[in-house]
Amino acid sequence: MKNLLLSSFICLLFFSACNLGHYGKLAKVENSSEDSLKSIFGNNFNSFLFKTYIVVYGKNYSGLLVTKQIEPNDYRIIFTTELGMKLFDFEFKDTTFTLHYCVPQFNNPRLLKVIQKDFQIILMNEIKDKKIEKYIDSEKKFDIYKLKSKKMYNYYFVNKESKNIDKIEHSKKRVKKTTFTLHDYENGFPNTILIKHHDIKLMIELISLKK
Asked: 134-177 pLDDT, tens per residue?
């Protein structure tokens, strides 16, 4: 029994060290007047269309996802099947979230809250009125912008050469909860966004069809 407890304690320490070490290697730097974290979608956009795949608890959903700006800081996100059947319909206005429609498969309070947060992070509305700290990684490949949102943190990894956001990490107490990976940039916009959760079985892939 003692050996089991000791082994469990050592594993816990090792796990904690790995997660803490991931952010412990970042060095804080002073923000200059030229520093700015740019939104993925840009400050103003009309609409984007994505081929979308969602895998949640072993079930697969695919279809089309439209993001549309109604007015500044007011966005509508609608996910449908390719045949046009609506699966969910969200609206984000400033800090307010409105659920206009949702099929029973997604109508789970915890799941809805998680998906809601995913799209809030992608839309990046929070960067407009929150304090952002700047860091650099040990290999000096990224400028990392850290934003606190309640008890959570978002880390935006901006490639120093391309100036594009390559990755976003959503974390709690320095432990990664969600990783957003952005690929295949064209004219400053990623053609692929992959959202992978580390604490629940949820993955979302967005493939741009038009801008």
From this structure: 888 877 788 899 998 778 999 999 998 999 999 999 998 778 89
Question: Do residues 86 and 80 lie in contact, with contact meaning Cβ atoms separated by under 8 Å?
Answer: yes
Tell me the chain's radius of gyration from C-alpha atoms: 19
* H helix runs in 98-197, sequence order: 109-123
Q: 3-state DSSP: the chain helix, strand, coil percent, rounded to 5?
A: 20, 50, 30
Alpha carbon distance 21, 176 (integer Å): 12
Tell me whether residue 197 is exposed, middle or buried, using C-beta atoms within 10 angstroms of its C-beta: 0 to 12, 13 to 18, 19 or more. Answer: middle
Contact 191, 184 (CB under 8 A): yes
Backbone angles phi, psi at 111, to 5 degrees: -65, -45
What tens digit of pLDDT does each residue of 70-80 get?
887 789 999 99
Distance between CA atoms of 145 and 130, rounded to whole angstroms? Answer: 12
* Per-residue DSSP letter, 106: G
Q: Are 97 and 89 in contact (CB under 8 A)?
A: no
pLDDT digit string, tens, across residues 15-70: 444 444 466 677 788 766 556 788 888 766 678 999 999 999 889 999 999 999 88
Number of helices (H) and strands (E), helices first, in the chain?
2, 13
